[in-house]
Amino acid sequence: MNYRILVADDHPLFRAAINQIMSVQLDGVVIDETDSVSGLQAKLEENQDADLILLDLHMPGAQGFSALVFLRNHYPDIPVVVISAQEDPVVIGRAMQFGAAGFIPKSAEPKTIKHAIETVLGGDLWSPEPVTNINERSQYEQEMAEKLASLTPSQFKVLVMMNEGLLNKQIAYELEVSEATIKAHATAIFQKLGVRNRTQAVIALHELDIEHPAHVATDDTNSDQ
């Protein structure tokens, strides 16, 4: 059976490693790559016929679990496997609670990555260790996740660009729309998030952030994080 896997990671060496693992150990797999959440959105808008998304938690546009929450709400039929240098059981548990179908540490051996992907493609969940009784989400965090999930794809894209520090006119230029359209999106974003301005909106986006790992061991199949 042929599978299309979207790999969203800003480290080219890791994307190359995934390509190598999949091409050597799994038949009929097509790998499509991107290095940002906006790039992933563009690919999904162009073609939603994907069987799996491998999502890095730390790349442009991925503010902690915010991208995961967005993907699970707008593309519920496509399983998402988080790939990360984070190996904290609490982070793994939270990712699974936010809807990830799996969690693959970047330190995992190629055979483990292959097994994890095959497991998820087969319809099951996979994590490096059992996830039990982990409930780190506060009520406020859960409410914020629901608010972020309510944003349309266009609104989420605008919010991510706000987080990158772009002005309305710059966002309009990048998205090839009018500044009035961006202002309308911004107003809708503020209403849905329950905030008054873009600073508060960006702060809200960071409510689902996680600490960036300081370092990760590397080998022939893993890149620096």
Automatic annotation (TrEMBL):
Pfam families: GerE, Response_reg. Transmembrane segments: none annotated. It comes from the Bacteria. Gene3D superfamilies: 3.40.50.2300. Keywords: DNA-binding, Phosphoprotein. InterPro entries: CheY-like_superfamily (IPR011006), EvgA-like (IPR051015), NreC/VraR/RcsB-like_REC (IPR058245), Sig_transdc_resp-reg_C-effctor (IPR016032), Sig_transdc_resp-reg_receiver (IPR001789), Tscrpt_reg_LuxR_C (IPR000792). The modification 4-aspartylphosphate is found at D56. PROSITE patterns: HTH_LUXR_1, HTH_LUXR_2, RESPONSE_REGULATORY. GO terms for biological process: phosphorelay signal transduction system; regulation of DNA-templated transcription. Residues 4-121 form the Response regulatory domain. Residues 144-209 form the HTH luxR-type domain. One of its GO terms (molecular function) is DNA binding. This is DNA-binding response regulator. It comes from Litoribrevibacter albus. The lineage of its organism: Bacteria, Pseudomonadati, Pseudomonadota, Gammaproteobacteria, Oceanospirillales.
